C-alpha cells in the first residue's frame, strides 16, 4: 500500500470518503480534484464493457492512467485476454507515468506525441474498445483526434469514445465533432454527464450494430 499523498490526506480530512480513500491508497499520485470521481468511473466503465484495448489521449501525471490500465489488467485476468494493453500519449511526463505504471505491474505503452500529429499509421492495426480524450482542449486537436481515431474504434455497439471537458474547455471542439458526425452520417449513441463545470460525453459506436440476445 502506498502512503497517502499529503494533498490526499488533506482532502479526506475535509471530505471523508472511505471508499475513495481506499482506492487512492493504491495510487502513485495525488487526487486531481477537478476529476476526483472520473478516475474510478472510468475504471468501472472499462470493466463493465470488457475492454482489452484502451487509449488515453493526455496521460499527464497518470491519475486516470492508473485506473484505466488497472481495468485493462483486471479484464485480461478475468477474461483470459492474451494481448490486452493500455495505450497513452502526451507531450510530456510520459516516461515518468509509464515507469510508475510499470512498477505496479500494469500493462502500458505510452508515447510522447502531440496528438495533432496523429495519423492512421500511429496505432496501425490496433482496434480500440475504449478511447478517453483528455489532451489538448482546443477545437483543432479535439476534432482531429476524433477524425483519426474513430475509424479505429470497434463498432457494433462495442466501442466507446469518451470526451472530457465538453462543458468546459473542450466545448468548441465537442460542437465541431457533433457537426462532423452529422455531416458524415456517423451512427452513434451520445450521452452527456453534465456536472456544470467540465462534463463528460460518452459516444458509443453503433455502426454495423446488430441486437445481441441475452439468455434472460
Your description of this structure?
The protein is α/β, with parallel strands linked by helices and 216 residues long. The protein folds into two domains: 1-31, no CATH class; 35-205, Vaccinia Virus protein VP39 (Rossmann fold, 3-Layer(aba) Sandwich), CATH 3.40.50.150. The protein is built from seven helices and seven strands. The chain has a seven-stranded mixed sheet, sandwiched between helices. Strand 2, helix 5 (94-103) and strand 3 form a beta-alpha-beta unit. Helix 3 runs parallel beside helix 4 and helix 6 runs parallel beside helix 7 (171-184). It starts with 5 loop residues before the first helix and ends in an 11-residue tail after the last strand.
Strand content: 15-25%
Mean pLDDT across all amino acids: 93
H/E series? HHHEHEHEEHEHEE
Q: In CATH terms, what is the fold-level topology of the largest domain? A: Rossmann fold
- Overall CATH class of the largest domain: Alpha Beta
Overall geometry comes to globular
Sheet bearing the most strands, described?
A: 7 strands, mixed
Radius of gyration: 17 Å
The percent range for helix content is 25-40%
What's the quaternary structure here?
single chain
Whole-number count of domains: 2
